[in-house]
Design goal:
The protein is an alpha/beta fold. The chain contains 21 helices and 20 strands. It has a 6-stranded mixed sheet, sandwiched between helices.
């Protein structure tokens, strides 16, 4: 097994804060490894050092000769003046350069240039690589490659940076939170893609399903030491429990021996000079071990909630659209006490818009939100709040509240409350600009909970929070005596917290599913398998079209036209299956008038699409024959 990367006794300090010291780490070819640690322990700093972006304060990093590393940073830097195409293929690699030139010449319409580039693509055997690149772009919803980077949203930029890393022909891929800004479909695709790739991986991620299904090595950074586990996340949990149990037993053993040794050390002072030096040294070693804590520091979310009356929240037939983009259509729901709901859907479907309407930050185009008099929202927004970087941690919290109430009803000072959220006095007077991304998110969570809400709305609460904090937050939400709505791409978090799911189905339609995310996913997969079996059957509208579709010769078409023809055939099969399913539903007699109208409207659109795509298919089919 070849060693790709070896860190020897590396240390990192930021000001007075020691992140880690004398750390050894080895990464072999074929490893799919993750680094796990609490926020502020220096995970991102460690990745920067291992990738050569920063130098350690002490120690060294040795890389395999000619090792090619591709690194997705948490806040990637892209050239704002580039198009997506230029940014993706910004490489001196001949294969990558050729694909970039081929993509550009397709837009030029210059047939001679296109034919020349096709020949070059053939010579380099670049077609398979181009198909792989197209698959990555399609899955990450990056379709218009001529869009300028400066015109993209933050989430789109992160996906461009991720695509850039994935399409690179490098030996080692390093990720810092790769699943942030991806929707659930993208995460599951990335999970499958990385599991099947032969490339070596090193990552920092809080997504535990992702860790469990992709990684075969876990590095745990704890109390300034690093532990290596040869297995996935489930294996890590088992072995970590064994290690902590053993550490606790060793601490207890040290304390018992310490009592005996203490008696010996306290004998008459005049005898001290005759005592064995080795035994005195052993005593101080035992004393140090006896002081060790058996458990890591852990956030303590012991927060009270405001009284909740009988009337909670009613959503009455609300709709919201921006131009032709329908985000919410005729959605109604009545919340009961202690409900914990998840909200899932692809990026841009309107999840945050719904939350803003519920909390009164936005208004529906029609319908109304009726809130109970006792309801007090705690809204943890995806974009957070803008802290003044030049304020200290304690001043930022005091700006919101001078005290807090715990679950037992006792009053807590801001200092005590900050201690609960792992901000000891030594960190409470730190300037916010010196906090890590995870520490800032933890501080933001604190500012939401200090107001004692009884209806929590959490929009992507898991981004940048470490796994230990997520575990504690999950336990708190599970026992929360109020209502919760969660938007999260963390499937593990959703499965542990919610008891039903609001699913965006498209075109503004939101359906309620009685179960957690995994149960919803299994139900949708069963439906997809049924459709997949149906689409394998040839699409037949009538005998004449059937005979046309049997033409097998594919001559006279460019590579691009061949791909378009194959795509049309797939689309026609899919549309045919959907048409058949809708017709069966309309003939079932179980639909009410509104549902029947919606199905009829969709059927009309499908028939129009079929006619349009059949004409395109016929044109290409005649050209190839």
């Amino acid at each position: 097994m070849i060693s790709y990367l070896q860190a020897n006794k590396i240390s990192r300090r930021i000001g007075d804060l020691l992140l880690f010291e004398n750390i050894d780490l080895n990464l072999n070819s074929g490893d799919k490894a993750a680094i796990i640690a609490v926020n502020g322990a220096g995970k991102s700093s460690m990745l920067d050092i291992l990738c050569g972006k920063e130098s350690p304060d002490s120690g060294s990093v040795i890389l395999k000769r000619d090792l090619r590393i591709s690194y997705l940073q948490q806040s990637p830097l892209l050239n704002e003046n580039n198009t997506i195409l230029d940014e993706l293929f910004n490489s001196e690699n001949e294969l990558v350069t050729t694909i970039k030139e081929y993509e550009k010449c397709l837009l030029s319409g210059d047939e001679k240039l296109i034919q020349r580039m096709i020949g070059k693509m053939d010579d380099l055997k670049a077609w398979d690589y181009e198909v792989q690149v197209k698959q990555i772009l399609f899955r990450l919803k990056l379709s218009d490659l001529n869009t300028m980077i400066m015109n993209l949203s933050g989430g789109q930029k992160k996906r461009v940076a991720l695509a850039k890393v994935l399409v690179s022909d490098h030996d080692l891929i390093v990720f810092d939170e790769p699943t942030n800004h991806l929707d659930l479909d993208m995460i599951e695709w990335l999970e499958e893609y990385l599991s099947s790739t032969g490339k070596t991986l090193l990552m920092v991620t809080h997504d535990r399903y992702f860790l469990d299904r992709v990684c075969n090595v876990i590095f745990e950074l704890s109390d300034g030491e690093i532990y290596r586990y040869e297995g996935n996340y489930e294996y890590f949990l088992e072995k970590k429990q064994d290690r902590e149990f053993s550490a606790k037993a060793n601490v207890e053993k040290a304390r018992n021996i310490l009592r005996t040794e203490l008696e010996w050390m306290r004998r008459m002072p005049k005898a001290r000079r005759h005592k064995s030096k080795s035994r005195i040294d052993a005593f101080y070693d035992l004393k140090e071990r006896g002081r060790l804590k058996a458990d890591d520091k852990q956030i303590n979310i012991n927060v009270g909630i405001s009284r909740m009356g009988k009337k909670i929240l009613e959503i009455n037939n609300i709709s919201k659209a921006y131009g032709e983009n329908i985000l919410i259509k005729d959605f109604s729901y009545k919340f009961m006490r202690f409900e914990k709901a998840g909200l899932v859907g692809r990026n841009g479907t309107g999840k945050s818009t719904l939350l803003n309407i519920i909390t009164g930050l936005d208004s529906p185009d029609k319908g109304e939100i009726v809130k109970g008099e006792t309801i007090k929202f705690g809204y943890y927004r995806q974009d957070g709040i803008t802290f003044d970087d030049d304020m200290t941690v304690i001043d930022a919290v005091k700006k919101i509240a001078e005290s807090a109430t715990n679950a037992e009803g006792s009053s807590l000072s801001v200092t005590q409350f900050l201690n609960m959220f792992l901000f000891p006095p030594s960190r409470q007077y730190t300037f916010i600009k010196k906090l890590s991304g995870g520490e800032k998110r933890r501080l933001y969570l604190l500012t939401v909970l200090i107001q004692n809400p009884n209806f929590l709305i959490l929009d992507e609460p898991t981004n940048d929070l470490d796994i230990l904090t997520l575990n504690v937050l999950e336990e708190y939400l599970t026992g929360f005596k109020g209502c919760v709505i969660v938007v999260s791409h963390d499937r593990y978090f959703m499965d542990k917290v919610v008891d039903h799911i609001f699913e965006y189905k498209g075109d503004g339609i939101i359906k309620d599913f009685p179960g957690n995310y995994t149960q919803l996913r299994e139900k949708n997969q069963e439906k997809d398998e049924i459709i997949s079996r149906e689409t394998k059957k040839p699409y037949v509208e009538d005998e004449d079209k059937k005979s046309i579709r049997k033409r097998e010769k594919k001559q006279g078409l460019s590579h691009k036209e061949k791909m378009e023809l194959e795509l049309l055939e797939t689309d026609l099969r899919t549309l045919g299956v959907e048409k058949k399913l809708i017709e069966e539903e309309m003939n079932s007699g179980i639909l009410n008038s509104d549902e029947l109208y919606k199905k009829a409207d969709r059927l009309g659109k499908i028939l129009s699409l079929i006619d349009e795509e059949e004409l395109k298919w016929l044109d290409l089919s005649e050209k190839e024959s």
